[in-house]
Structure formats: C-alpha cells, structure tokens
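Exercise 3.2. Students should predict the tertiary structure of the chain below and write it as structure tokens, then compare their answer with the key that follows.

Predict this chain's 3D structure.
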Amino acid sequence: MVDSFNPPGVWAPFGAFSMAVIQGAGQIIHLKGQVALDEQGHVVGKDDMRAQTRKTLENIQRLLASIGGEMQDIVSLVHYVTDIDAFMTTGDIRRQFFVEPYPVTTTVQVVRLYHADLLVEITATAEIPRDRFRRPAVGSA
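Answer key:
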C-alpha cells in the first residue's frame, strides 16, 4: 500500500506526480526530488547554488514536518546538481539542517534539470519514528 500526499507550504505538483509517498503502514517516506521553488512555483535564487540549496532543504523540511518528521529522520539523499564544484561550497548550509549521524548521500552532476534556472534537485528517504509520525490530512493528496 502506498499513500501519497501534497501538503500546503510548498509548491504544488503540476504533473503526474506527488510530493511524497508513505510506504506500507507508514513511517517510511519517499520524497519527490525537491527544488528551489516557492509556494507559487517560482524559482528562488536564480544563478545562486547556495540560495537554491537552502530553499530546497527548507522544502524538504516542510514536507517532513507536515507528517511529524524532522531532518534527522532522513536516512538517504541523492543530489542532482548542474555544477558539482558550486555545490561543494554548500556544506555549511547542509550542516544547518543536519546533525550527526548524517544521512548517506550521493551527488550526481547533470547537464540540466527540468527548468533551466534550477541548479539542484534533492530526493530524500526518511524513517519517522512511530511516536511522531502522523498520517497526512485527508485531501492533501
């Protein structure tokens, strides 16, 4: 069983995808690749890898918070970046969102993302402890 959800506070899906899915009975969460879009779907931080990384992590944080999750619940991240050297300057920003033990990560340089102004996309998998996990409200999918 898979339940999907699209909580308020982040940009809305505009195609055949969900922001996140809950695997099985719950607690295992797979987040769609998040990017630096505001709630209206506008790119934040054009030409600025650091600003886009921050906004992307904020979007991930909001998605998790909507179901009781925290950044420390993330077990795995995959970063897709258009300039790996620029992304390597964002470690201090990541440390503002994560504490040890850090999630495992993979970083891949790509030619471009789906919108030419986007520089980074991050997918995440998290496991939210039962005592904090809450199913999304009906109608958030």
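Discussion points: The chain is about 20% helix and 25% strand. The first helix runs from residue 49 to 65.
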